[in-house]
Write a structure and sequence with these properties.
The complex is a heterodimer. The radius of gyration of chain A is 19 Å and the shape is globular. By secondary structure, chain A is mostly helical. In chain A, helix 1 packs across helix 5. Chain A has one domain. Helix content of chain A is 77%, strand content 0%. Chain B is an alpha/beta fold. In chain B, the strands form 3 sheets. A 6-stranded mixed β-sheet of chain B has the order 7-8-9-5-10-11, with helices on both faces. Chain B has a 3-stranded antiparallel β-sheet with strand order 4-3-6, with helices on one face. In chain B, strands 1-2 form a two-stranded antiparallel ribbon. Chain B is globular and about 50 Å long. The N and C termini of chain B lie far apart (39 Å). Classes of the chains: A mainly alpha, B alpha/beta. At the A-B interface, helix 1 and helix 4 of A face helix 1, helix 2, strand 7 and helix 3 of B.
Chain lengths: 269, 239
């Protein structure tokens, strides 16, 4: 039990360290909030300019896309862990994490927590700006449910980040494929437009990943968008993805670290 | 729970059980690429409690590789490194609690954290109890004369100051075995004296030190060590 407590405190220590480093860059929050404002402005006018099939009003498409933009920041944070690992390798701090009683695998998982939490906050800020500046109508009665739903989505998304972190440990490159994977997910996950617009085979393929059900569920809870599958089914799907992919990604990370230790390349960068 | 015992043929201990020593390297071999000659070949070494051991060698002789294997950072191709009879892969948490490694160079620090926050972070990652973290960090700040720098960010410190912090981090958790790779790099006389005191403390609490540095340093440092070896063509020979 005391070991579990120590481990919990070590996870918190990594998050606290990331917070201190984050706060040392004073303009970062402002810069990211401005990025949100500009993205929302762009899509606000696109929603008014173009009539999108399946949306009764410009406001309903705007609500749809704002949730997509908010989720995209969460998605980016999941994948950012590979670049963070790369930075730790370059700084020589990965070596120290590996040689700590906390260990490398736990450390990498811990490294992903602050970016996830921060992206959660930034997603809320994006929605807040959408409401305050662009008149986004949230479905307040189900908004509180979106918090546990986002937590569940994070559990289903995190394995992708850990998988890419394993790749980063093995290949010493931070962004191996993450950019195009995120771009692909934003298309097949329906972040900017409904997947019903995509070819049938792409729609089928999109069911093989957790982003589509998570996006659809969160949209339903936040802006009352219609769902193609009930919330319960989406929850079961996400739980299933998390249950299978989390252990698999942790295993992959462990193997990547052991591979580097055996070859002696673990701290190369 | 069983502890595997190994007979170890060691320059410093003759034939003995591996679990009788805080650190034992047995028949360690490592090569970088199959076509390359081994960097380490049949290296046997034991550290005893309350002793200081020095390993020298020319640049590229394999000193850092030896330390990395001893620290549990990388695996040998053959042989094993054991702390009280167990390898890092058998019980990594225990191994890393007992061993502290100060790598060569000036890396391994978070540039945007202050000295105090850096020490607090590594104390927590070492899974120290919360009640112990703060006093231990403050004690370390004083012991390594970092008080004036405690709230300064690392990227605003000189190389020598960073080295002092790196050494402070090595001793922070009161490890039993300390492995140091060229610890005098960038240190001034005052820093070197502080390091001496830290090593005295380690020896006083029956810890063991393994110090690696280029051969030239040996002439100045010989009096400080209980055993001195040189790595030549992958093998340990008496200095």
């Amino acid at each position: 039990m005391s070991d579990l407590n120590s481990m919990g405190r070590a996870f918190l220590a990594v998050m606290r360290r990331d917070l201190h480093v984050f706060l040392s860059y004073r303009t970062r929050v402002v810069s990211q909030a401005l990025t949100s404002v500009f993205s929302l402005t762009l899509f606000y006018y696109v929603s008014r300019l173009v009539h999108v099939t399946g949306f009764a009003t410009p406001a309903s498409y705007f609500g749809f896309v704002v949730v997509g933009i908010a989720l995209l920041s969460v998605l980016y944070s999941c994948f950012s862990v590979s670049e963070i690992v790369r930075q730790e390798l370059v700084a020589g701090t990965f070596e120290r994490l590996l040689l700590s009683p906390f260990g490398a695998v736990r450390s990498v998982i811990a490294l992903s927590l602050f970016p996830l939490l921060y992206s959660f906050v930034m997603a809320a800020v994006t929605l807040g700006i959408g409401c305050a500046v662009f008149g986004l109508q949230l479905h307040w009665s189900t908004v509180p449910l979106s918090i546990p739903a986002t937590g569940l989505a994070l559990l289903a998304f995190l394995p992708f980040g850990l998988g890419f972190a394993a790749l980063s440990v093995a290949t010493k490159q931070g962004n191996v494929g993450t950019t195009w994977v995120i771009a692909l997910i934003s298309i097949v996950g329906g972040l900017y437009f409904p997947i019903s617009l995509l070819p049938h085979w792409v729609q089928t393929a999109s069911k093989l990943q957790p982003f589509t059900p998570a996006t659809e569920m969160l949209r339903h809870l936040l802006v009352n968008s219609p769902q193609s599958t009930p919330t319960g089914t989406a929850v079961v799907k996400l739980l299933g993805f998390a249950a299978v992919l989390l252990p698999a990604s942790v295993f992959a990370l462990h193997r990547a670290i052991r591979f580097g230790q055996r070859r002696g390349t673990i701290i190369e960068y | 729970m069983t502890v595997e015992t190994l007979e170890v043929s060691s320059p410093s201990a003759g034939i003995a059980r591996a679990d009788a020593f805080p650190l034992a390297l047995r028949d360690v071999e490592k090569r970088w690429g199959k076509a390359q000659p081994p960097v380490l070949e049949g290296v046997n070494l034991t550290l005893e409690l309350g002793t200081r051991t020095w390993i020298g060698g020319r640049n590229g002789a394999g000193k850092t590789t030896l330390l990395r294997i001893a620290a549990g950072l990388i695996d040998p191709d053959h042989g094993r490194a054991q702390v009280w009879g167990r390898t890092a892969n058998e019980n990594r948490t225990r191994y890393q609690r007992l061993v502290s490694f100060q790598p060569a160079g000036d890396r391994g620090l978070y540039a945007r954290l202050t000295v105090r926050r850096q020490l607090q972070f590594w104390a927590r990652i070492a899974m120290m109890t919360p009640a112990r973290v703060r006093p231990k960090v403050e004690e370390t700040i004083d012991a390594f004369e970092l008080r004036e720098l405690a709230d300064r960010r690392v990227d605003r410190m000189s190389m020598g100051q960073r080295q002092r912090l790196r050494i402070a981090m090595t001793f922070l958790t009161e490890p039993e075995i300390v492995l140091m790779d060229e610890p005098l790099t960038s240190l001034d006389d005052e820093g070197a004296a502080i390091l001496d005191l830290a090593i005295e403390g380690l020896i006083a609490r029956h810890g063991a030190l393994l110090w690696c540095s280029p051969t030239g340093e040996h002439e100045q440092l010989e009096h400080r060590f209980d055993a001195c070896w040189v790595l030549e063509q992958g093998r340990l020979v008496p200095a």
